[in-house]
């Protein structure tokens, strides 16, 4: 079985044992990557949410042949673009240089898009302005888009329609919308990424099941978006003994062990749980669904990148 986690925020300090600026335990990123391999995850896309974070993502990816980066500016970070010393032009020139200098490691432009649930971080006007700039970056580099869409009242779909000719393809990750919203995105030629937050309610499960298998991708979006006992999807997880793989034991960070996950700190290995839920929804084996999703991911993000995945 081969899986690719399309959304892993591995530059977050919690993966080095630091929480809110304070060290709680040793750096355990190596153990986290080992657990991911044990879950069948052969590759990960490390999310770049700003110029500085994209730089750190690439640095991390240079240390592991199974890691690849996205380069862009998350909508909630878009307020920093015009404040950059070189202005917006300088900021996006910096993103372009990162891509051009690391074509063997950068597989997508993003994370970019719109998020109207968190306008306290960046206004609607600023988000719209900086999202549009990513289409030019995708057009210039030929890279697909790694997209964010949250409660945008049609603005996201409108901008995708207006600029669809400028990029090859892409995925709307961490999808939590309705079946109608999924149909709209699919009609724009996009893929949809599912994680634990995509599977909270029965309505979420119905929307996830409606996505054609050849448009489906999966992710952890770690350290966020784990499947919790309160989620509708939790009942679809296999019981002990029903699957060859179970999520590793987790402990509070105060009782940290390199052999265990940390409670409430999601990891890439949980992508396997997302697969288990989706396989149950579709009434098919994990292996067959994994093969389809793996093929989708390679086709969109890795067709022009040398890789050993």
From TrEMBL:
GO terms for molecular function: 3'-5'-DNA exonuclease activity; metal ion binding. Keywords: Hydrolase, Metal-binding, Nuclease. A divalent metal cation 1 binds at residues 111, 221. The keyword Oxidoreductase does not apply. It comes from the Eukaryota. A divalent metal cation 2 binds at residues 148, 173. The keyword Nuclease applies. GO terms for cellular component: cytosol. Belongs to the metallo-dependent hydrolases superfamily. TatD-type hydrolase family. This is Uncharacterized protein. It comes from Coemansia thaxteri. The lineage of its organism: Eukaryota, Fungi, Fungi incertae sedis, Zoopagomycota, Kickxellomycotina.
């Amino acid at each position: 079985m081969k899986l690719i986690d399309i959304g892993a925020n591995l530059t977050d300090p919690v993966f080095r044992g630091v929480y809110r600026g304070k060290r709680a335990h040793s750096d355990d990123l190596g153990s986290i990557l080992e657990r991911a391999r044990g879950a069948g995850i052969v590759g990960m896309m490390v999310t770049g949410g700003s110029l500085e974070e994209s730089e750190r993502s690439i640095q991390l990816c240079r240390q592991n042949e199974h890691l690849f980066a996205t380069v862009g500016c998350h909508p909630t970070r878009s307020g920093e673009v015009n404040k950059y010393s070189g202005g917006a032009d300088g900021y996006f020139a910096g993103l372009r240089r990162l891509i051009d200098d690391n074509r063997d490691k950068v597989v997508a432009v993003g994370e970019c898009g719109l998020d109207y649930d968190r306008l306290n971080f960046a206004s609607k006007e600023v988000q719209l302005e900086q999202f549009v700039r990513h289409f030019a970056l995708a057009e210039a580099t030929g890279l697909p888009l790694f997209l964010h869409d949250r409660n945008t009242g049609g603005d996201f779909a409108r901008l995708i329609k207006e600029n669809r000719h400028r990029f090859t393809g892409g995925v709307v990750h961490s999808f939590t919308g309705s079946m109608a919203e999924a149909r709209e995105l699919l009609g724009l030629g996009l893929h949809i990424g599912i994680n634990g937050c995509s599977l909270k309610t029965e309505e979420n499960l119905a929307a996830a099941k409606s996505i054609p298998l050849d448009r489906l991708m999966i992710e952890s979006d770690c350290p966020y978006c784990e499947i919790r006992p309160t989620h509708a999807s939790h009942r679809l997880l296999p019981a002990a003994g029903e699957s060859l793989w179970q999520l590793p034991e987790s402990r509070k960070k105060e009782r940290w062990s390199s052999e265990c996950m940390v409670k409430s700190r999601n990891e890439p290995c949980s992508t396997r749980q997302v697969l288990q839920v989706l396989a149950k929804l579709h009434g098919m084996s994990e292996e067959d669904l994994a093969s389809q999703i793996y093929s989708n991911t390679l086709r969109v993000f890795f067709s022009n990148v040398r890789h050993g995945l």
